[in-house]
Amino acid sequence: MSARSTRWRQPSVLPGFGLSFGFTLAWLTLIVLIPLATIFLKAAGLGWSEFLAVGFSPRAMAAYQLSFGTAAAAGLVNAVFGLIVAWVLVRFDFTGKQVVSALVDLPFALPTAVAGIALTALYTPEGWIGQFLEPLGIKVAFTWIGITIALVFIGLPFVVRSVEPVLADLGREVEEAAATLGATRWQTFTRVIFPAIGPALLTGFALAFARGVGEYGSVIFISGNMPGRTEIAPLLIVTQLEQYAYAGATAIAVVMMLASFAVLLLINLIQAASRWRMGA
Amino acid sequence: MIHLRGITKQFGDYPALHGIDLDVAPGEFIALLGPSGSGKTTLLRIIAGLEFQDSGTVLLGGEDVSRTPVADRHVGFVFQHYALFRHMTVADNVAFGLSVRRGKHRIAKAARQARAEELLRLVQLEGLGSRYPGQLSGGQRQRVALARALAIEPRLLLLDEPFGALDAKVRKDLRRWLRDLHKAMGLTSIFVTHDQEEALELADRVVVMSQGRIEQIGAPDAVYMNPETPFVSHFVGETNRLPASGGEIHFRPHEITVTPDGSEAVLVDNVFRKGAVWRAEGLLEGSGQFVELDLPSSQDAPRLGQTIRFNPHRARMFNADGDHTQGDLP
Fold first, then answer.
1. How confident is the model over B295-320, as a mean pLDDT?
2. How far apart are CA B32 and CA A104, in angstroms?
3. Structure confidence by residue, pLDDT tens digits, A201-236
4. What is the mean pLDDT of residues A142-156?
């Protein structure tokens, strides 16, 4: 009834664009832009040459490389295996499906430090898994591999939850249609399923990547934190803060933020292009 | 062309098909007609290889394909909701079956495109090859799906409720068009429908199914005029049922003669125009059975509250023991 009584003001079924868009902008400003702007302000206090010296020091550069590199690697691993998990959850019914589905979300709920400690215990040379890798010459804990594993753990839900609804929407029929036309399973995957869920997979990758870049709690235990080698950028910021070098910390934060924003913007542009191409 | 022998299928505890036998001659147009849950779609999917029977054999053109995967059966399949590839152009959709061929069966891209264009002309969508499915209407999408299925030159065309998602006008046009196409191509085809009108209009033979069994197979006229079971009688066409000793008497709304000394009388409680006739509905005097009668619309419409006396002039008697008789009544 209330919808009916307000209808004379809003002839469209969707609430007014002006109002909702204004709200969106105000909300984003309050929650995202203002806090981020203060970081820029703080960093601006450094002056240009000092900003470059701190923000692009060799130690900082190594940390960026490690953070973005491991986040991208973890995002790719999650894209592949998260897709398989999502496919199984969508296409098959099995006992314990709800349990598996809940397990996928667990990395969201777990304090990241707990995950970090557990993974470190597993992958040190004396750990359950580490002891088998050690003789093979593979060191996981306290290397970039360990960091990647921690980021894979915390990023898994992003890919699964992004791809799942799109895969469900795509429907079994499309796969069946491809099969009736003579396509092998592999052809069906590469030419029918993958292009259709590509944008969602990219979203999942972007979210997992973004989370990985900013991740702190689970990584610091397994990384070993050796400056220039296994020190991630967020840790470098915390280190600066502990030395009361607030401006230096914000300089590194600004560089990270701009780089992350550039990557996310690129991914969004690719998605917009693919949506446009599908005529949706 | 197709020989099905003793096909059974069970989904969990639910028996979907109980021993289906069916033979289809080359070039025939067959309708699988039945309500939802009758097993008609399951049977179609078993013929395609999208589902596998628990027991029984499927022969296509003399070859036992009972365990052959769908990709190797060479059967065209059209889905109710089109199942087009949204990220491909219409032309790429149509050419998909040719583009996935491997080894010595590979076809050059130019030849594939030419073939796709030819098929789009066949389904009257020439010039739309570069569009995406999202930019087409429902009827156009279904024709793309048909062209895509025909592109692989299937030995058999299977259609699952092909008009189910379309509105009435488009459905009627597409129906006529599909019948003409079948006449021109002579491709053995089976379609599934729950719409008896569609089955009677299109098919050479109608297979009426109910609860996983075939109730009757016959030409549309035979199925309509001489239903062999009470189910077929009331599922195909409209039927009035009168209780009788030892069974039921069925007659169609038009199989009556109105006469003042008729043995049955109905008190009319609803009248409307149904195409070329008046449809009068009401309860029979005595038994209180609901009946529908068709009266010529060249006469005045029956009035509400009027009593019409009539005799069924043609009817079928279904005995409780499964026997039936039918014919003209005096």
1. 90
2. 44
3. 999 999 999 999 989 888 988 888 888 888 999 999
4. 92
Contact A252, A54 (CB under 8 A): yes
pLDDT in tens, B194-248: 999 999 999 999 999 999 999 999 999 999 999 999 999 989 989 998 888 888 8
Contact A250, A43 (CB under 8 A): yes
Tokens of A38: 């203060």
- Does the distance separating the beta carbons of B75 and A173 come in below 8 Å? no
DSSP B259-297: -TT-SEEEEEEEEEEETTEEEEEEEETTT--EEEEEEET
Q: Which of B96, B130, B136, B158 to mutate to test the interface with A (most CBs of A within 10 A)?
A: B96
Please calculate the CA angle B32-B38-B43 and round it to the nearest 5 degrees. Answer: 55
* Domains by residue range for chain B, with CATH: 2-225 (3.40.50.300), 240-328 (2.40.50.140)
Report chain A residues whose CB lies below 8 A from the CB of B157: none
Q: Quick one: what percent of chain A has pLDDT higher than 90?
A: 41
Model pTM? 0.79
Interface of A with B in 151-190 (CB under 8 A): 171, 173-174, 176-184, 187
Tell me whether residues A196 and B87 touch, CB distance under 8 A: yes
B interface mutation test: which of A95, A181, A271 has the most B CBs within 10 A? A181
CB–CB contact A180 B75 (8 Å):
yes
Query: Quick check: A180 and B71 CB within 8 A?
Result: yes
The average pLDDT across A259-276 equals 85
Q: Is A188 helix (H, G, I), strand (E, B) or coil?
A: helix
For chain A, the domains span 44-277
Contacts of A182 in chain B (CB under 8 A): 71-72, 74, 97, 100-101, 152
CATH number of A44-277: 1.10.3720.10
pLDDT of residue A109: 86
Which of B50, B85, B135 minimises the CB distance to A176? B50
CA distance B258 to B134: 55
Enumerate the residues of chain A whose CB falls inside 8 A of the CB of residue B49.
180
User: Kind of pairing, strands B264-274 and B247-251?
Assistant: unpaired
Provide the pairing of β-strand B256-258 with B307-312: antiparallel
Residue B226 amino acid letter? N
